[in-house]
């Protein structure tokens, strides 16, 4: 069985290197060159076995998702991903697992031009922590505190697919391969986030569900909002497996969408549609920001709707 430093050498041999990496894996710390006129955006997320993914999830899918959830945070801030670190806690030094994990992790890293520049390996229950670094022109990061009354509320892509897959898994199957793919291989909306610079007023990525995550934006901005449930973007696959009454909880509180939710004035709608179309990303207006506080939901019949739960929170139950 390989030792810790054997695993590190294995990882280093496969990690790519951007020209702005002065010193990467192999020293006490990485040295990175931030270009003039840019702000550095940093985020970190942990995936824990039994909390964030089913035990049978493949190593390659874990690798992809561990990086994707971090790049989704950078996308929400309109940042361009640049570098990342990886801390792997493994039950044993399984070189085959590490190789398969890197297959997924580096597939996404290479696709988006991200260099793995350091991290750590330890023994223990399976846990994966990634810290991702991105760059944004100075002062142009998209934040949570810019929403204003009268803005429209948008979401990219479709909502509820990953939560639908998790619901099917918990029920013991059968399950949809298309929904499960959305759970295991989320697509971070990096290009869309960059396209929203100067157009959106506030943004967040949808990791814990629309109700919870939009709520963070509203509190930071000091406003409220109304969401029209009939406008929630729904994939054909989700509609085939879940009727409307069962879809709404998945779309509002299920989490794991990793789409972007953002606000923008109505006057920016055409420019937003053009900018996102150029990225190949769909987006839908699902509601409106209002003065005051709170988040309200309305059915297509005009009735009030209250989600059973706001969204996932650690220490208050499992996902």
From TrEMBL:
InterPro entries: PurM-like_C_dom (IPR010918), PurM-like_C_sf (IPR036676), PurM-like_N (IPR016188), PurM-like_N_sf (IPR036921), ThiL-like (IPR006283). Pathway: Cofactor biosynthesis; thiamine diphosphate biosynthesis; thiamine diphosphate from thiamine phosphate: step 1/1. Residues 26-136 form the PurM-like N-terminal domain. SUPFAM superfamilies: PurM C-terminal domain-like, PurM N-terminal domain-like. Mg(2+) 2 binds at residues 45, 73. It catalyses: thiamine phosphate + ATP = thiamine diphosphate + ADP. Mg(2+) 3 binds at residues 28, 73, 205. Mg(2+) 5 binds at residue 208. ATP binds at residues 119-120, 144, 207. Substrate binds at residues 52, 256, 312. Keywords: ATP-binding, Kinase, Magnesium, Metal-binding, Nucleotide-binding, Thiamine biosynthesis, Transferase. Its EC number is 2.7.4.16. The keyword Ubl conjugation does not apply. Mg(2+) 1 binds at residues 44-45, 120. Mg(2+) 4 binds at residues 28, 43, 73. The keyword Cell inner membrane does not apply. One of its GO terms (molecular function) is thiamine-phosphate kinase activity. Signal peptide: none annotated. It holds the Pfam family AIRS. Reaction mechanism of ThiL seems to utilize a direct, inline transfer of the gamma-phosphate of ATP to TMP rather than a phosphorylated enzyme intermediate. Catalyzes the ATP-dependent phosphorylation of thiamine-monophosphate (TMP) to form thiamine-pyrophosphate (TPP), the active form of vitamin B1. PANTHER family: THIAMINE-MONOPHOSPHATE KINASE. Belongs to the thiamine-monophosphate kinase family. This is Thiamine-monophosphate kinase.
């Amino acid at each position: 069985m390989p030792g810790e430093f054997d695993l590190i050498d294995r990882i280093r041999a496969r990690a790519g290197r951007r020209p702005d990496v002065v010193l990467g894996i192999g020293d006490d710390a990485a040295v990175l060159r931030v270009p003039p006129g840019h702000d550095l955006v940093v985020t970190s997320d942990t995936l824990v076995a039994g909390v964030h993914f089913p035990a049978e999830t493949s190593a390659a899918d874990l690798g992809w998702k561990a990086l994707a959830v971090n790049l989704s945070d950078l996308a929400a801030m309109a940042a361009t991903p640049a570098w990342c670190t990886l801390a792997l806690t493994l039950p044993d030094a399984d070189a085959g697992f590490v190789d398969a994990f890197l297959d997924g992790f580096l597939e996404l890293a290479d696709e988006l031009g991200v260099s793995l520049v350091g991290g750590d390996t330890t023994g223990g229950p399976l846990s994966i922590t990634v810290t991702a670094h991105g760059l944004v022109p100075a002062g142009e990061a998209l934040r949570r505190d810019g929403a204003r009354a009268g803005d429209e509320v948008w979401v990219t892509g479709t909502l509820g697919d990953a939560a639908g897959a998790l619901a099917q898994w918990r029920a013991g199957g059968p399950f949809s391969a298309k929904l499960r793919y959305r759970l295991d291989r989320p697509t971070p909306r990096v290009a869309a986030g960059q396209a929203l610079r100067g157009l959106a007023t506030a943004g967040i990525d949808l990791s814990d569900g629309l109700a919870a995550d939009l709520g963070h934006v509203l509190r930071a901005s000091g406003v409220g909002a109304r969401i029209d449930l009939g406008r929630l973007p729904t994939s054909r696959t989700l509609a085939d497996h879940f009727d409307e009454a069962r879809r709404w909880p998945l779309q509002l509180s299920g989490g794991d969408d990793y789409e972007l939710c953002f606000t923008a004035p109505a006057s920016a709608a055409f420019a937003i549609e053009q900018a996102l179309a150029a990225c190949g990303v769909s987006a839908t207006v699902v509601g409106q920001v209002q003065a005051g506080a709170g988040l309200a939901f309305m059915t297509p019949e005009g009735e009030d709707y209250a989600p059973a739960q706001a969204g996932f929170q650690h220490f208050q139950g499992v996902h």
